[in-house]
């Protein structure tokens, strides 16, 4: 990225009569900046302010529902990025109109909303986005989570790992229950400072080592770490930090018939209880 330097670029490229380029002029009070800000300010009900810091604070302090606040806090950053991108494009001989600046900012904001809130939108103009965001009514749903015992001749192992600081002081725990729901074994250990992901992998490893030693050859392993489940099932590539643990678990699975599945936190509370 090019850095702003008023000594190298004394005159702005945003006004019909160029003025000295300062950060306040480029991002807040120049001709292009004012048009872009007014476009977004108008629909949001925000007055144009003289100083950039005040303008950003105004966007951050604007009230509204949860979605409105999330989007309004990001909009100033998007506007600044587009204005900076426009400035450098023109500086190096390109063309970047004011309309394109507004269009690009609109597009980024729309993509942010779609990605952040996991929704499908056929809305492309900022004013329409504001109306839709302000009309948002949150919906709530719930589900009952229960631990279910495994079928006959199988055991179920719940595992959990935790790290305070991520990385930081860590621990791992597991508990095994039979098909009647009876607790067979429970274990919690402190491990070296590491991340939550590594601690989760260590918990699964400890469980499988116990199963191998005590000849428990059919076990369902449940973890509330969806990342570890996806890694062990081969859907996700293992990060370098857990490669050794994952490789060791794979070797243990050659001896122990283990099915790995995800459990919600509420269904994994017993293993969580044994974390040290």
What does this structure look like?
This protein has 276 residues and is of the alpha/beta class. It folds into 2 domains: 23-134, no CATH class; 155-273, Nucleotidyltransferase, domain 5 (2-Layer Sandwich), CATH 3.30.420.10. Helices cover 46% and strands 16% of the residues. The protein contains 10 helices and 5 strands; from the N terminus they run ααααααβββαβααβα. It has a 5-stranded mixed β-sheet. Strand 2 (168-177) and strand 3 (183-194) form a beta hairpin. Helix 1 crosses helix 2 (31-44) and helix 2 (31-44) packs antiparallel against helix 4 (66-91). The protein starts with 22 loop residues before the first helix and ends with a helix. The mean pLDDT is 92. One of its GO terms (molecular function) is RNA-DNA hybrid ribonuclease activity.
Quick overview:
The protein is an alpha/beta fold. It has helices at 23-29, 31-44, 52-61, 66-91, 98-117, 126-134, 196-213, 226-232, 243-252, 269-273, and strands at 155-163, 168-177, 183-194, 218-223, 257-262.
H/E element string? HHHHHHEEEHEHHEH
Q: Which topology of the largest domain does CATH recognise? A: Nucleotidyltransferase, domain 5
Helix content: 40-55%
What kind of oligomer do you see?
Answer: single chain
Spatial extent as radius of gyration: 28 Å
Mean pLDDT: 92
Total domain count: 2
Sequence of strands across the biggest β-sheet:
3-2-1-4-5
Classify the beta-strand content into a percent band.
Answer: 15-25%
Unreliable residue stretches: none
* Span between termini: 47 Å
Question: Shape, please?
Answer: elongated
């Amino acid at each position: 990225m090019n850095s702003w330097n008023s000594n190298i670029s004394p005159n702005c490229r945003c006004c019909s009569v160029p003025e000295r380029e300062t950060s306040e002029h480029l991002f807040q009070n120049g001709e292009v900046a004012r048009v872009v800000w007014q476009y977004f300010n108008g629909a949001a009900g925000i007055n144009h302010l003289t100083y950039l810091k005040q303008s950003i604070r105004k966007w951050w302090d604007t009230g509204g529902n949860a979605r409105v606040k999330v989007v309004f806090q990001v909009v100033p950053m998007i506007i600044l990025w587009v204005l900076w991108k426009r400035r450098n494009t023109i500086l190096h001989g390109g063309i970047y109109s004011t309309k394109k600046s507004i269009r690009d900012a609109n597009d980024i904001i729309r993509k942010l909303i779609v990605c952040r809130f996991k929704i499908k939108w056929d809305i492309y103009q900022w004013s329409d986005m504001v109306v839709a965001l302000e009309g948002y009514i949150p919906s709530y749903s719930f589900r009952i989570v229960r631990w279910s015992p495994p079928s006959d001749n199988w055991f179920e192992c719940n595992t959990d790992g935790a790290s305070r600081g991520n990385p930081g002081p860590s621990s791992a725990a597991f508990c095994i229950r039979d098909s009647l729901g009876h607790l067979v074994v429970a274990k919690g250990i402190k491990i070296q400072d590491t991340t939550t992901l590594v601690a989760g992998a260590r918990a699964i490893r400890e469980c499988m080592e116990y199963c191998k030693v005590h000849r428990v050859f059919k076990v369902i392993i449940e973890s509330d770490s969806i990342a570890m489940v996806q890694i062990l099932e081969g859907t996700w590539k293992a990060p370098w930090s857990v490669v050794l643990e994952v490789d060791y678990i794979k070797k243990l699975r050659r001896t122990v018939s283990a099915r790995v599945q995800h459990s919600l936190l509420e269904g994994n509370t017993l293993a969580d209880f044994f974390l040290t």
